[in-house]
Every structure is written in C-alpha cells, then in structure tokens.
Fold Lycopene beta and epsilon cyclase.
Amino acid sequence: MASPEPCTTSGPCTRTVAIVGAGAAGALVAIQLCETAARRRTPFELLLIDPAPEAGRGIAYSTLDPRHRLNVPAGKMSCYPDDPGHFVRWLCHHGEPGVRGGDFAERYRYGAYLADTLGRAIMAAQGVVTVRRLRTRATGCRWTTLPGGDPTARLELADGRTVDAHRVVLATGPSRANAEWAPEALRGNDRFIADPWAPGALDAALGQGDKEDVLLVGTGLTSVDIAMTLDRPGRTVHAVSRGGRLPQAHAVDPLPAAACATPLRGLPLPALRAAVRQHIGRVMQTHGDWRPAVDGLRPVTAEIWASMSTEERAEFVAQYGSLWNTHRHRMPPATAEAVGRMRRTRRMRTYQGRLASTAARPDGSLTVSLTTGDGPRTLPVGWVVDCTGPGLRLSDTADPLWRSLLDQGAAMPGPLSMGVATDDGRLHGADGSTTRALWTLGAPRRGELWETTAIPEIRAQAATIAEAVLDPWTASALPAGGGPARRRTRRPTDASGFPLSTHAAAATAYRLGVDRLLKVRAGAPQALRRSVALDPGFALAHAALALIGHECGADVDVSRALADARRAVRERADDYERSIVDVVSRRVLHTPADGDAALLRHLEEYPGDALALAVAVPTIAFSGLRDLDGTAALRVVERTAPAHGGSWFHTSLLAFMRQEEGRYDEAGALAEQALAAEPASGHAMHALAHVHYERGDHEAGRERLGRWLAHQGRGGTHRAHFSWHAALHELALEDTAAVRRRWAEQLSPGKVDGVRALVDSGSLLWRARLAGAWQGPFPIGDVLDTAPVDVLERPATAFVALHAAIALTAAGDLPGLRRLRAHALRADEVQRSVIAPLCAAFEDILEERWTEAARGLERLLPRLPGVGGSAAQREIVEEALLFALVSAGRCDAARGRLEERLDRRSSPHDRRRLTALSS
C-alpha cells in the first residue's frame, strides 16, 4: 500500500498510529489515544492489528470459566489512573449493583469492560480519529524515511498485506513459553498441552467421563486457573515446580498498605534483603499480617529494581524471584478457598521438583517421572499441561515481529535479556538511539521495571505513551476556535463575560446549561453533555457536570466527569478555568473546609462569576458554603454585589440571604424585584417561599407557589422542592387532605426520584407522620427504593446524609442507620461531628430511648447550620426533638420550644399543639 503523507494544517490528515495487539495493553493505549486526541482535536488514523474476534480480551480475559477471577480487587482495575473507581461503577451499571472495590470480579467481565470502554472511546472520538481493525498478525516491521518526511514503519501482516504507520505501539503482551523444559519425547506427544489458553486446548482433557489424572508443570496463577478448570470427582491434578509453592491468598478483609520506613533505593542486595525482612517483621507485629508490608513495597519496586546492578538483579531473580511472585501476585480469597478444598480432598497435589522424563503407555496416556525433594516419584497421567507462564527472555522469542525488530537493530534486549530496552516505553535501537517512533508497554518492559504486568502499571504506561505519540502532532496552544495555534481568534465568553477555551458551538451549549442552573430550570445536564460532546477537551463543561452530579444529584458519573475536567484543564485553559476546576475538584475530593476555601479564593479573584456564586450560596441548587455561624454566604453575596450590578440573579441570592437573617420585609421586596426582571428565577421564588413560611403567611404562600408552579415553574428542575414548600404551608394549616393530594400528584415516587425524592418526599412524609397528618399505609419504602444504595449508605455531602438519616428513621431501618453512622464516622468533619451523632439520636428514637434521643438532638441543634441547606429544611430535626421531648414526658421543654417558634411566626398546627400540651 502507499505510504501515508505527512499531515498538514491545510489538507486532510493521514497521520497513522498502529497498535499491534488488541488485548488489555493495546485496548488501554487505544482508549488513551482516542480520548486524548478528541480533547485536543488532533486527527489521525488508528490501526488495531490483532487476529482476535474482540478487542480488549487478549489471552487473559477471554476465558469463559466463571471460576477464573481477577487476581486484583476490582477497585484497582480501572482503565484510568486518575479515575480508580471506573471499573467498579461499570460493574454496578452492568448487572452487579452491589459490587465493592474489594471484590474480585470474573475475568471475562473485565474483558467485556475493556471492550465496552474502548468502544465508547472510539465513538466519542468520531470525526477526529478514524479506526481500522485488522484481524491478522503483524509478522515484520521495516523502517523507511520518505523524502522530506518522518521515518515511517511498514508493517508486514500474516495475510500478505502491508500497512504503513508514523507511530507504532507494540502491545503484544507476554512472550509465549517455548517449553524448553519439556523432554523431547513429550513435546511431540498429543497428550502434551503446550498452550492451555489456546482455543479448544483443554477440550480433550475435559471430555465427557474423562477422569484421568493431569500433571501441571508450574504452580503459579496459571496453574491455579487450569487446576480449577480441570477439577472433577475422581481426578487428581498434580502440579510441580522448582519452588513447589502455590500463590498466597489475598486477605478477606485487606488492611491498607504499609510503607517501608527505611529508604531502600540503592542498598546492596544483602542490606536490601535485611531491610525488607525487618519491614515485614514490623508490619507483622503491628497488623498481624505480612500482606500490607508487601503491598507497601509496590510503589517503590521499580525504583529499587532500577538501582540494582545487573549482578544483583540476576541473583534476585534466581534466588528470590519465585518467592516474591508467590507473595506479590496472590489468589482471590474465593479461589484460594476452592484450591484449599481440592488439596484437602487430595484432588490437587503439589511437588517441589521437576519433570525428569515421560513415557507413553499402551492406552495413550503417560507415565511421568518427577525428581522431587522427597526423592523420585512416578505418576500415571492422561495429560501434561505447560503452566510455566510466559517466558522472561524476549530475545529468545519465536515471534516473527519481535524477531525482525531485534535482527535489524530496531530493538535491543533489556536487562538480563528480559524484554527490551526502552526510554519510558520508547524502544532503544541496537545503537542505543530512540529515533524511531516505536513504543511498547507491559511485559516487554519486564527487564527494566520488574513489576510491569498488572493493570495499574500498564494503564499508567498507556497514558504516558498516548501523550508521547500525540504531543508532536498537537498544536502548542489551541485557541478557542480549535484551529492552528498561529491563527488568532476571539474566544467566546460565558454568561458572566469570562473567555472560554472552546469553540462557539460548545460555548453556546455551556452557556445554556449554566443559564438553566442559575434559573433552577431543567435541561442543564443535557446542555452540558452537548457541550462536551461538541468539544471533549472543554474543561469547564466537564467540571460543571461533575459539580451538578456531586451536589445536585444529577445523573452524572461524577468521578469520570471530574477526571475529564482535570485532564482537559492541563492541556487547554486559562487561570480562570483552572481556578474553577480546582474548586470543583476540592469540593468533590477533599474536605468541605478545603472546598470552601478554594471557592472563596476563586470568588475573591473573580467576583463576577455567577456560577461560582450559586455554588457558594445555599439556596436550592447547591449545598453552599458550610459554616457554623451561617454568615459566610451572606458576606460573599454582599462583597460580590458591585461585580453583578443589581442583576436579577444576584438580587435573588441577596433576597434569600436577607430572609435567612430574618429581614423578611426586605427579602420579600428583593425577591419581587428579581421576579419582575426574570419571572422564571427559581432562586427568587424560593426566597419568597421562605419569607411567606417564616412570616406565617401560609394561605398567601400556598397560593403564590401554586400560581408560579403552574406557569413559570413548569420547567423547573426542583419543582418537587417548591411542592414541598407548599406542603409545609398545608401542614401548618392542618389541611391534611391537601397534603395527601400534593403527595400523590407532585411528590410520590415516579413523580420524584433519587436524591430529590430523599430530600423532599422522604422528609415530608416524616413531618406528616410526626404531625399526625398521615394515617394508613406509609409509603416511605417507595421513596427509599428510588434512592441509590450509595446515596443512602455512603452519601457524599452532609446535607444528603441528613436526609438519608431522616428517610431511614421514617422507615424504621435500624441497620441502615447504623451503616450510615459508620460511613459518617469515616467521612468529612461535618459528617463526623453532626451526622454520626444525629444517627445515634435517631437510633434512640427507633428503640424508644426518648430521654437519650432528646438529649442528643438538643446538643446537635446549634451545629446543624454546618450541614447546609435552609433553616426550614433543618427544622425537621427540631420536629424530631419535639416528638422525643413529649414522648419522654418533658412537656415543659416542648412547650418552651413551641412558644419560641410561635413568637417568630404563626402556625395553626403549632398553636393547637401548644394548647394540647398546656391542657
């Protein structure tokens, strides 16, 4: 075929990247290439060369045996270094909703995950990356240089074709074992299975009724998998290796990794060995388990290996390599249990030694002779299976592609002849140069890194390679329009006037999304998704999606959106955009105090940023700044007033703050002013709803909310919350029929779902029950069914946690409350200091320890503002306190609280309760 032409900015781009191998490593590189190219708008053609029917599986993840599980917990198997929970979330959305990060998933499921993630990355990069899948093998690679062009690789394929590429990534995985250990008579025997992972290789040994014993040569993880596959009643699976050790097991309840306190890099091997033993001994004394010690060495393993001399490396591999591997690469607990049962029932037996000879028997089976530490042993077996795993020395490989690169000097063996020599993945030629655009990752880097075959290492290498491949093709500074860096264009702006690092179409969609957020109207997630689809490299749109998913309960993969924002902001952003992404990152990933500090710094620098101001002020859409005295948001609103020039949005927020201060007349006037300028302002209507409630204008408040909901509020994203406000008026008026009607028409599950149902529907139900306004079946279970398990048991914010506790209490779910309390004790400071004791007080209510419940709730009331939300929302805790006080017989204390409340606002319901307590 013709060689590709160099890519120019004026003509079509024919730059080509070839990935040889489409297993896990190849898929991870392809994912990173597609996503990075889409963010940068860097066009190229991607060739995926592999004969397998499906990309992403390779040998490791093609197995259909459900007993074959990942040897690493699901929480460490994400495709993305910066989004560790991605695989777990994928499993939750693909039929395993209860999976946790510490679970060990089926290997076939992981192959499906890789294939699905790759497919999504390819679709997201359409229009930028053209993908061709060549289902054949690459058998050779020759480099040429076109006149006036870059060096180009010509790849020879097994089907006789050739393809040319500017960049080549060799994702070939581990080299295949060559079975040199096997006696010559065995290698040619039909009963020898040289590659147990080859399609159909084990079929004969799995034949119906076949109970002949089997010998596995090797006792590593491959041997464990094959032993479970071949296990059946009446058969013994024998396994032999030089060390005779099976892999150790992962702990059922793993402990965190324990870092070594002693610097290990550069120590001579004897001193290194002593230091590691001391480290393991200290951890054993502290934790009673050696695993945290070994896990704590993982971050520094590559550094230690790099600091060792060639002789030390060789000595380590010969003397300690097997021991290290059995402790470092461990079996899942379920696998270890299955293997343990096989050994206890003598269906599996292991030997330290080697296979000395084999002889064919008349029936076709084999007699094998082993040399073991206990002397010679002879076994009759039906099959011998090579489970020695991949070969270490790539220089001995029979793979024609690697052979051609080594023979022509385009590659050179790595340390100890293991793998090849590279510079951060880019291959060294025989002369030591790295002039060819040729990379590899994973097992071929074993000699350089030692630990390089697990997904956590490979995914990081894939990201590095994608950057190295695309960096020379990416414009040094993309303007907003996305054209060449040298062409100056005017950047579009957001609604606050700040320039955006994107093109006009994506900016328009972003502005629409933010406008919907500021007006508290539906459609913001859809508009923001449209923005990132138009420009995957637009950091602010990704950040806004992460923000509304985290704080507003929008259906957004928060971790993924945040990771995309952080990747994009590193490549294309100004100081304003970097500051916004930092704010969102800290609110999602760090403590509330850290998130608030970042938000305050941003508003100090950019006081005119309406979106950031909305995040800071806890009106309805966001949780706001969380401070115990409740004045931080007010100070921000007052300080930013000059930058907003009396806009309807700023006036809406100021109205809300004034009602929080108790300045209801001023708040009402400001809300009416904002609504006159923008009738759809949800913030202004929300402020007015609070004004009516706190002034006791229940009839007027219900009527005004009803008119607004029927007209301007029809497209509101928080209609349920306005309905909740109307229901509060109806509870105060003791109009129980109206409350039931509003529940059925506007607040029941199906009308409201997820977090909004928890916050509004669930809290209203409990208020109604405490008020005696709900008789008959109590549908709180329907509300809980709409809320994801994570929201109920592991809420991200204290505000959501408060309402989770309320709903669980209303449902009488004592175990759920205890799980929520355990989460709160491990979460941020507000959850630890407020939510955890609140759960304890609610537990006292459920167990009718009324005095203890009242005492706990009384202590908590002053700290509730730190949870966020409005005083009307937090009032439900006071309602619970009143209930506990009356139930405990402390009627005087209950009367005092009701009198204090009636001094603030009128309420027919509170007046009737006070009369009842006084009689």
